[in-house]
Amino acid sequence: MTEQIPAPVSTTDAPAPVAGPLTVREISADEAVETLLELGGSFLQTPAWGRAKAGWRRTHLGWFDASGRRVGAGLVLSRTIPRLSRSYAYLPEGPGLPWDVVASDPAAWLDPLVAWAKAHKAFALRLGYPVVSRIWDREPVKKQVSENGLLSFTSLPTAVDNPAARRLEAWLDRNRWLPLGADGVAVGQPRLLCVVDLRGRTDAELLKGMNQQWRRNVKKAEKAGVQVRTVGPEGLDTFHALYVESAQRDNFLPRPKAYFDVMARSFASEGGGDHDGAVSARFYEAHVDGDVLASALMIRFGRTFSYLYGGSTERNRDARASNALQWQAMRDAAAAGCEAYDFRGFNTSLGATSPLTGLLLFKLGAGADVVEMVGERELVINRFWHLAFARAMAARIAINKRRKAARATSDAADI
Fold first, then answer.
1. How many Å apart are CA 259 and CA 299, to the nearest integer?
2. Residues with Cβ < 8 Å from 196, sequence gap 6 or more?
3. pTM for this entry
4. pLDDT in tens, 287-302
């Protein structure tokens, strides 16, 4: 891969100078989407994602410079302690800011957000910093997985080490923003992602970036007559049936159909108007003569095309429908001008025999590199309420685990 930083979240090539000091205030949903698209923000910062997260209050914030120009945007999801006004505030993979500029003076950008959180009685503030930290080429990672099982590849040499991330992380450490894993307070996004860099690459170049097995499977799918189509929310039933079948086969706990229904409809309603084409959610279906063998939920937001969830059947496995589906989606993303095809995250504690390790190797075989983000950090504003909330959530999680039975293995890279 080239020595670039192909982030799932990117910034404009030459952001205009920002006149300080900065202020943060509430903005409309449309204003938030407009700014996020300009800056390359995450789909997790959109109004559609906020609508999909039941039980969380959503607030859209804008960053403004001294001239009144809007220079950033973020979605704050808040969960309130019952019968009290104290809340836990969370910005998943956000906010959308010019992060190369932010890294040179984080206090100027983050202190106004902290002040807003305090004014609104948040006892803790959690951000999923969408800044690329390091990137590993796929080949050394695959070798490490094959030979050692556990994914201890973080000690391997990197293809990219982002100095802006190092500056940001040093500031966060000094100012008591504590790093969090994906199993934190009831919510969390993966720090390690699998991302295919699409920039300036033709279909032939993308195909060449896949491993030999992937290229063979793409050819097998073509010979088997696999065709790929896209459908809207009406594809939910087929998708969920295949997703549940995959969950039973690979021993993970499936999400309910209603979760995907809300998500698909939320993003479908986000598109159109000024954002037509830049925001979309579609189900991709790979079929042979109408028999759907694989289905996946895809979301495009701006310059990033993301594969969220998928499922497949044991029927006609030799047709390699899953390979055909991903290959078509990747080509669609490149044709639409996207810069990154985001396979999303994975669990770093997987053993070599885990079915989910096979899923990781599937993503790497498609030409994805491992991208590490600065990831999730938490600032505790009020220790008393934070401790009370953490204990309450821990008890809730323990109860849910007992209810859901021991057979399912939770995927820590889940969305």
1. 15
2. 206, 209, 330, 340, 341, 343, 366, 367, 368, 369
3. 0.88
4. 999 999 999 999 999 9
